[in-house]
Structure formats: structure tokens, C-alpha cells
Amino acid sequence: MRKIAILTSGGDAPGMNAAIRAVTRKAIHEGFQVFGIERGYLGIIQEAIFPLQARDVGGIITQGGTMLKTARYPEFQDESLQENAYQILKRHGIDHLIVIGGDGSMRGAQGLSRHGMSTMTIPCTIDNDMGGTQYTIGFDTALNTVVDAVGHIRDTSNSHERVAIVEVMGRKAGHIALQSGIACGAEIVLVPENPMPLHEVCRHLKETQLRGKEYSVILVAEGAYKSGEVKEFIKNHTEFDPSLTVLGYLQRGGGPSAFDAILAARMSEVCINTLMSGVDNRLIGYIDGHIRTISYKEAEKLQFPINEEQYTLLSILSS
Ligand code: ADP
Ligand code: F6P
């Protein structure tokens, strides 16, 4: 009986549990023995490896976070630690390692594959910043969380006729800010890929006020400006006194949206089917509605940056 181990790595994201459940049950269904590893790559070194049965993953599909825990373990970039991890996995009889995480986690899997480990990566991060896939599990849920939060902030902004600044996550990418900005009707979205200069933001705010807007919502991606920088600039250069809300970990928590839970199920199925066909060391990607398998090298090259046309659309719609 071939043995599969699963780990979650990097920032937790809604849908990690749904993916753990789906991989476990699909793999057991196909005759594999399944193991969980706690705390990402650190857990391999700690040998926190234990068997997972179908019933162990019951009731987690709607839960946020990850039942396997996760960790940032930057030391894992060290080749000798990767070799050590490979030897530990071999000693435990693990044939395939399934990594659920973001691009850093995929690089960890790629590192292990260079030492001889058979791996697969299921993309799971709220940032949606991975090559090789147009959607990562967790992104859709985070968008819904931001849209919901901005709806509440908008009520107060409207009542007080005040500019609201909402800072969102996304690391160096503006996907969360741009897509949630379109969905919630933000007036201005500041993304790292195309950062609008702050004097331009002030000019825009004055114009919207002249056009009769009583309040405005500005979404700031964390990679675009330092926290609090936009608020300070606007305060110092205009008569506006914006409110500031940093959504922070609110965006990472909560159960997955239906889209993310379904994506987790579909990607997990393809992941196990691919291993059974004798192919490994692949990212499972979502491209134009299809679930594909992509080599790690190809995934790095196949980038899906923010869509400039959508950025233009947002500004047209916020007039
Ligand atoms: P994410 O997977 O969400 O992008 P990180 O960038 O923090 O999150 O990466 C998660 C973990 O993956 C890191 O803490 C580390 O253990 C591992 N990792 C990241 N980059 C590499 C790399 N270049 N080589 C090996 N392991 C890596
Ligand atoms: O990758 C997910 C993410 O939430 C990013 O959006 C953010 O930059 C980072 O993780 C924050 O990480 P930490 O867990 O170290 O606060």
C-alpha cells in the first residue's frame, strides 16, 4: 500500500481543511494509506507524522484554519535540512508528499523533489499570487470577507460623510484589493503593481467631492504603501480626515466559501489521479475554468498578474 503524507504550510487560508479532507478521503478511496504532518516543513524535522483515517477529517470542511497547524519555517531553504527532511520521510515509508500552501510552500516542495521526493502542491493562500493558477484556494473567501467588512464601514462613512481607508492583505500583489474593490464599489484602489501617487489620490478625492460624493472608500493593498501612510498624507494635504481600518487576520479566518470548498475538492481529486497516473512534482492549477497540472518550473513562468483593464474598469465604475 503506497503512503501519502499531507502538510499545510505558510499563512493559513480558508479551505485548507477542505483540501486536507478531500485529499485524505480521495486517497483512501484509491487505496493509499494517509498520514498528516503537523506544522508544515518544521513538522517533518520534528517527525510530527501520524496516520489519518477518513473519520479523522470529519466535520472540518466548513472550518477555517488548518487542523494540521501551519508554520513559517524559513530555515527550510537550507539544502541540508531538505535532505534531512527527505531522509525522515523515507524512513517513515512516505512515497508522496502533498503540500497545501502558497508559492513559498511550493518552493519547499520543489526543493524536496530535487532530493528525490515525490511531491504535489495544492495552491492555497488568500493572496492569489501564485504562478500556474488563476485562483488559489482561500482567495474567494477572503474577497467575500473584505466585501462584507467594507459594507459595514461604508455605513459609518456614509453617515459621517467621511473618507474611509481600508487596508487589506495580499503581500506584494494587489489581487485582494482590486477584486474586492470592484465587488464593493470602492472609489480608489491602491495596488503595488500600479501605485497611484498620493497627491493624485488627494486630487481625485477633491474632484469626487465636487461631483457631489459625500464619502469615499479607498482600499489600500499592504504592498502598495506602509500602514497608515495614505491616511497621514491625505490628512496633511487636504481638509479630509479619513478613518483607517486595517482588516488584518480577519481576512485569513473563517470557513471557506462554496467556491473555495469546491475548488479544494476538485484540485484534490486531480492531485490523487495524477499521482496514480505516475506523474508527480506538479502544481495543481485552475486555468480558464479547468483544473490542470503544471510542472513547478512552468508554474513559476506562467504568471497571472492583476488585470490592468479591470483596474481601469474600477475607476470608470466609481465615477
Ligand atoms: P506561502 O507558502 O503562503 O507563500 P511562505 O512564503 O511563508 O508562505 O512559505 C511557507 C514556507 O515554505 C516557509 O516558511 C518555508 O518553510 C518554505 N519555503 C519558502 N520558500 C522556500 C524556498 N525557497 N525553499 C524551500 N522552502 C521554502
Ligand atoms: O500570505 C498570506 C498573508 O496573510 C499575506 O497576505 C500577509 O502579507 C502575510 O501572510 C502575513 O503573514 P503573518 O502570518 O506573518 O502575519
From TrEMBL:
Entry binding sites for Mg(2+): 103
Keyword Kinase carried by entry: yes
Pfam families xrefs: PFK (PF00365)
Binding positions (ATP): 11, 72-73, 102-105
Pathway as given in its UniProt record: Carbohydrate degradation; glycolysis; D-glyceraldehyde 3-phosphate and glycerone phosphate from D-glucose: step 3/4
Segments passing through the bilayer: none
Needed co-factor(s): Mg(2+)
Active site: 127
Enzyme Commission numbers on file: 2.7.1.11
Positions annotated to bind substrate: 125-127, 162, 169-171, 222, 249-252
Residues engaged in binding ADP: 21-25, 154, 185-187, 211, 213-215
Catalytic reaction list: beta-D-fructose 6-phosphate + ATP = beta-D-fructose 1,6-bisphosphate + ADP + H(+)
Any one Gene Ontology BP term: fructose 6-phosphate metabolic process
Keywords: Allosteric enzyme, ATP-binding, Cytoplasm, Glycolysis, Kinase, Magnesium, Metal-binding, Nucleotide-binding, Transferase
NCBIfam families membership: PFKA_ATP (TIGR02482), PRK03202.1 (NF002872)
Annotated family: Belongs to the phosphofructokinase type A (PFKA) family. ATP-dependent PFK group I subfamily. Prokaryotic clade 'B1' sub-subfamily.
Function: Catalyzes the phosphorylation of D-fructose 6-phosphate to fructose 1,6-bisphosphate by ATP, the first committing step of glycolysis.
Name listed for the protein in its UniProt record: ATP-dependent 6-phosphofructokinase
